[in-house]
Amino acid sequence: MVEIFFQQASSTKDILITDEHLKAFEMEKHSQFIQKYAEDKSSYEFVMTEYLRMSGLYWGLTTLELLDKSDLLQSDEIMQFIRDCINDDGGISPCIGHDPHLLYTLSAVQIACILNREHELPVEKIVGYIKNLQQPNGGFFGDKWGELDTRFSFCAVACLSLLGRLDVIDLKKAVEFVMSCHNFDGGFGSRPDSESHSGLIYCCVGFLSVTDNLHLINPDTLGFWLCERQLPSGGLNGRPEKLPDVCYSWWVFASLHMIGRSHWINKDALKRFIFACQDAETGGFSDRPGNMPDPFHTLFGIAALSLMKYEGIKSINPCFCMPEDTLRRLKVTSQVLPFP
User: How confident is the model at residue 90 (pLDDT cuts 50, 70, 90)?
Assistant: First the structure.
């Protein structure tokens, strides 16, 4: 168990990392962890995550692809699962029998693209589903139940970009909605007047990257807010006064990378934090050292290491969180601002 402490003379929450924590990168154990997680369908963890199974497949497949071990998963079985989750309206559900949602539609498209089998998708149906979720203010509902926030704006344009169909939505209105969620501190929230948050900043910066609109933000103001997320432990948090979490190693660092300010944080300290979150016995990464590993944190820990060009990990795209060689094959590009 890692000790949680408040830094003296301030109210900063952080964790204490000692020399006892794992430092070496356990590549083989991580690939085995993902393979076991996918194969053991009777495990408690597998059963209890049915409601996000499609995203779980994306996290696992992308992790293995980055480690050059994607052959450990059965691509035919994965594609059949995707086909079984496609709804009549073109939306894709997280698991068979669940309602479709934009989040899982993106995950399914990402999976198919990584497997080089996007041609097997009913593209026009999926495009129609996404188009119909755009609202008069330019934002997107996540599904038919009407939740609207900036996560879904990113999911919509990322999905359409991968399918080569960004032309079907009102892009001008979509950009206006995202920019209406831009805050005085440089960050973005889920909707207008909402608090800035690292995960939502990633979605909004990613949206602007896909649509070639990064010129609309001030990279220095946003970069400062993002750099303030790094704590003495080296880890990154999602917003002020929160503990560090491995997933923000991706959300924060990828956002900094897209706006050309990734050199503003201490990468060595961040690597040390990420390595400390590995499970030495089972493989996989947890949110913080000593906690239970899962595929979600495993992907985003390894993805952040990829952005830092860690040896042995394939190159990843900071906007789509997909291998760069997949995006090159698809001829899909995204905007990245130059370093000043």
Answer: very high
Q: What single-letter amino acid sits at 118?
A: E
Least Cα distance to 131 among 119, 144, 140 occurs for 140
Dist. CA 314–CA 305, nearest whole Å: 10
Pick the range with the lowest mean pLDDT from 8-12, 66-70, 144-148, 180-184.
8-12
Give the C-alpha separation, 194 to 233, whole Å: 28
Question: Which pLDDT belongs to residue 240?
Answer: 96
Q: How confident is the model at residue 154 (pLDDT cuts 50, 70, 90)?
A: very high
Burial of 282 (0-12, 13-18, 19+ CB in 10 A): middle
As a whole number of Å, the end-to-end CA separation of the chain is: 41
- CA distances 109 to 86, 162, 250, Å, are 11, 8, 21
Nearest to 103 by CA among 133, 61, 78: 133
Q: Is the pLDDT of residue 136 over 90?
A: yes
**Phi/psi class of residue 57: alpha, beta or left (left: φ > 0; alpha: ψ in -120 to 50)?**
alpha
Q: Which two tokens stand for residue 196?
A: 């800035």
pTM of the full structure = 0.95
